[in-house]
Amino acid sequence: MSNAKSFLFVCLVFLCTAFVQAQQIGGANTKSEICFGCHKDQAQDWSTTWHSRSHVDSNPLYKAVVNYMSRITYQPEAGVLVECAQCHNPKMTIKEIADKESFALSEALKIKTAQTAIVEASVQDKAIKDGISCNICHNVAKINETSNLQMRGFKAVEWGSSDTIYGPFEDDGRARIHKSLQKEHFVNPNQLCMVCHFGGERNGIEIYTTGIEYEQSGSKEKCAECHMSTQRQGIIAPGTTKAGVTAKVRDIRSHLFASARNSDILEDTIELTAANSGNNFVVTLKNLTPHKAPTGFGGRSMNVKMEFKNADGSVINTQTYTLETVYADKKGQETIPYLAATIKNDTRLNANEVRKLSIPKPTGATSATINVTYRLASERFLKIINFSDPVFDKEYLVKSINVGL
Ligand code: HEC
Ligand code: HEC
Ligand code: HEC
Ligand code: HEC
Ligand code: HEC
What we know:
The chain has helices at about 5-25, 35, 40-50, 60-75, 75-90, 100-110, 115-125, 135, 185, 190-195, 210-215, 225, 380-385, and strands at about 140-145, 155-160, 165, 180, 230-235, 250, 270-275, 280-285, 300-310, 315-325, 325-330, 335, 340-345, 355-360, 365-375, 395-405. By secondary structure, the protein is α+β, with helices and mostly antiparallel strands. The protein has three domains: about 55-90 and about 90-125, no CATH class; about 135-250, no CATH class; about 265-405, Immunoglobulin-like (Sandwich). The protein has a four-stranded antiparallel beta sheet, with no helix packed on it. Strands 7-8-14 form a three-stranded antiparallel beta sheet, with no helix packed on it. It has a three-stranded antiparallel beta sheet with strand order 12-11-13, with no helix packed on it. The termini are far apart. One heme C binds next to helix 4, helix 5 and helix 10. One heme C binds near residues 259, 268 and 291.
């Protein structure tokens, strides 16, 4: 090839690549990695959150629950996964298994059919393995408001065009690599969080009630204020400034989606005090959040452990009080939220609730230590599904105090 020809060839390849990128940047099958180079801070934060691990291959508890449901309901695991994908993997191509009976039979007998091949391929799709990725939230063009608690996840949204990123700012063409469009659900992002953190009704039981609890609390504080960060000034894509154009400083937030696992957010869950009241000892818990504590996934719990010591410093009495939800099936047997017919008991703290736990003071006690801990999966829940894992079978410290009696 002559120099001129090869130059043209290189230009052509470059143009094609640019075209393909611009076309696909927000597409259904785009992995988050495509955004990482330009949006390092958002990418780093997001990678620490379990939004990035919302897939059966990255989340051992999710895997164990799906496996348990599959055994109890005689459904293939892939069938359960397609159902749960509504929120956990909302862009999974298969939305429903057309012929459930023949699918279950083929899976049980390990016979490969066109249907099993399609389902396996969509569960194992590379972009799906990215979980709640950049291209889930930033491809939401519209949220359909409805009071139907089953119409959540992908059923609540309209995906946007694949060359456009939806975000909080007015488009001024600065991004160049992608078009962008301002949407109200990024300016006031509560509505975006509610797509998955509100509802998910199953057998008449509301499974994910964080959004409902929040609305009942009357709070005006945004989910993003506590779970992303307060707004701060920053540059969105610092490495991509065009020569001669000054990068715009904007009001931005972290992408931490802060929880017990990647932040110190638990410290802000409750206020803990304790005092004598006659012959009783009273522990006061004040929920500082505008939703229940604990909230979210129905297996979460908090333990309030009171340890009484005598003058020698020996422990003479220990009492534990658990904040959790207990679910039961039709026969009254304890089960997991997704298989429940009733909620047997719910001892979690309501939004902003102040609860006093009053117990008789043990004779001879001269001091008490109160430890409040948080569990991603309660002992009760793990026992039902017969599962253990270092991340989920762990007590995260919320608050600890010592008082003289
Ligand atoms: C769970 C939904 C969600 C996911 C996942 C998500 N974002 Fe965002 N993003 C938001 C919200 C909400 C805002 C607006 C925050 C605000 O200003 O209140 C935002 C804002 C932004 C902004 C504007 C500047 C800023 O940081 O506020 C950029 C850039 C961005 N996101 C990039 C990304 C990238 C890159 C990823 C993947 C690594 C990602 N986002 C994943 C919800 C999400
Ligand atoms: C080649 C670099 C580059 C890549 C790749 C890239 N962006 Fe951007 N993005 C930018 C620039 C530049 C801006 C504009 C910055 C500004 O105006 O302050 C921007 C703006 C944004 C905004 C704010 C848009 C608004 O109007 O609110 C979001 C959200 C965003 N990008 C998300 C993403 C996501 C998600 C991906 C991956 C699918 C991605 N970006 C890929 C460079 C990039
Ligand atoms: C498309 C559905 C979806 C949307 C939209 C969504 N989430 Fe989530 N979120 C999930 C799922 C699913 C999980 C559990 C992922 C896992 O652990 O496998 C989760 C987990 C979380 C967690 C716990 C994360 C951790 O690392 O332990 C927090 C906090 C959270 N979301 C907050 C938010 C906030 C705030 C918003 C709105 C800006 C939001 N989410 C929007 C589906 C969503
Ligand atoms: C005032 C701060 C604050 C606000 C506002 C807030 N939260 Fe929380 N959130 C917390 C704290 C603290 C925790 C940890 C204790 C708990 O579970 O209640 C938490 C826990 C959670 C969890 C469970 C995290 C985990 O480990 O899985 C989810 C999900 C969640 N919040 C979602 C939301 C959503 C959605 C909104 C908005 C509707 C919201 N939060 C508003 C402070 C807040
Ligand atoms: C309505 C949307 C929605 C549906 C449908 C849904 N989930 Fe979830 N799931 C969520 C959200 C949101 C969270 C995060 C709540 C939190 O962090 O406390 C979550 C969290 C979880 C967790 C805890 C993960 C962790 O890392 O701690 C498990 C396990 C789980 N879901 C299992 C399932 C199973 C099994 C199904 C199907 C039967 C299902 N979910 C259906 C929205 C949904």
